[in-house]
Amino acid sequence: MRLINATVLMTVLGSCAIGEDGTPRPVTSNASTSGSTGSATRAPRPEELKVDGVDPCATLTSAQQFELKIDEALNQPLDVLNNDKPAPTCRYRSNGKTLFNYNLSLVSGEGVDYWEGSSNLEVKSESVSGFSAYRYKLSGTFQAYCSYAVDVADDQQLVVQFLPIGEGFSQDQMCQNSARGAELALATLQTLK
Which ranges are annotated Low complexity under compositional bias (predicted)? Predict the structure, then answer.
């Protein structure tokens, strides 16, 4: 009986993955992720929006920040892909009654195909303002965060994360907020050519 229990324990522990710092990230693979589609079936983008060299804190206008209830913007690189390559990121923060952040990252050198393949993330293929995108969150979590990775150019993506600080948002609300942040940022990026 102990041999069976030890075998079961080794099997269970062997199936757990240990990451470098516990941050979720996709595993490089050619397999398709549940709920997502591969780059071969991704719709063509309405236009190419190169993000290299763009100030991430210029991605939302004052009027857009007001709409999203943002109080402050901080230009602070973030390793959004967990690949030791921090991307230019603006952390937009609300300091009101309900606290939350929008992190808008402008990733160059890695396209949205990064999100394809097996991982510990729940990834779903979607569209934001006509651009192909992946919505993702950590599998098995509720009310933690919601992010969109938008295909803006070859090997470039806009990543918008909505992160509540504390409670007050359902998963659907977080994803709606993240999608709205992406829509507004895309509208601004189209004017920054």
Answer: 28-41
pLDDT digits (tens, 9 = 90+) for 137-152: 877 666 678 999 999 9
Residue 7 placed within a domain: no
Provide the residue type at 101 as one letter: N
Dist. CA 35–CA 9, nearest whole Å? 31
Contact status, residue 105 vs residue 79, Cβ threshold 8 Å = no
* CATH number of residue 161's parent domain: 3.40.1000
What is the total count of domains within the chain?
1
Q: In the sheet where 146-153 sits, what is the strand order? A: 72-75, 89-94, 99-108, 156-165, 146-153, 131-138, 121-128
189: number of Cβ within 10 Å: 21
CB 126 within 8 A of CB 134: yes
Residue 162 counted as domain residue: yes
pTM: 0.78
